[in-house]
Amino acid sequence: MTTEERVLETVHAANTMFSQLDDDCLIEEWAKARVIELETKRLRELMEAEMERRLRYRGARELYHPDWVMEMVEPTPEYRMDRLETLRELVPPQEWEKAYTPEHTEMVAAKLSMTVVKAWARRFGTEVGRVIEEARIPGAPARLRIKTRR
């Protein structure tokens, strides 16, 4: 029996039991469940912190489990447009046009498609790669993402 099936079975049994309780008992059971929920939440936070610690210690990206994906994910980085402007002189004009979106009249700042720009580092060499890396704005560290494997 899977964890989900056990939970559904427990919930069904509890629902039957709750319908038989008077108001005071039902509220007391709710209060107990709330304490358990808070304790469980804290335990999960501690376990997730330990998983993250292990991943960082090992320099790993994922803790393997057949049913769960426990992986570190990097946040999407941000880049300083003023520094990326240097790329205009380093890449062919047609490549620049593929990535560049000019400012709009409705006050949208100019921007570059970073999917296109990051590929330039491999195509046009280390100078382009250096400019891109220097334009990167330090952001949040990687975080742990947990999801079921299906």
The largest pleated sheet is described as: 3 strands, antiparallel
Q: In the residues, how many domains can be counted?
A: 2
Shape: elongated
Distance between the termini: 17 Å
User: What is the share of helical residues?
Assistant: 55-70%
Widest β-sheet, arrangement of strands: 1-2-7
- Class of secondary structure makeup: alpha+beta
Radius of gyration: 26 Å
Order of helical and strand elements? HHEEEHHHEEHHEE
Describe this protein's structure.
With 150 residues, this protein is an alpha+beta fold. The protein folds into two domains: 3-60; 78-137, no CATH class. It is 59% helix and 15% strand. The protein is built from seven helices and seven strands. It has helices spanning 3-18, 23-58, 81-84, 87-90, 93-99, 114-124, 126-135; strands spanning 62-64, 68-73, 78-79, 100-101, 111-112, 136-137, 143-148. The strands form three sheets. A three-stranded antiparallel sheet has the order 1-2-7, covered by helices on one side. α5 (93-99) runs antiparallel to α6 (114-124) and α6 (114-124) runs antiparallel to α7. The two termini are 17 Å apart. The model has no long low-confidence stretch (mean pLDDT 88).
Task: Furnish the topology, listing elements before pairings.
Elements: H1 3-18, H2 23-58, E1 62-64, E2 68-73, E3 78-79, H3 81-84, H4 87-90, H5 93-99, E4 100-101, E5 111-112, H6 114-124, H7 126-135, E6 136-137, E7 143-148
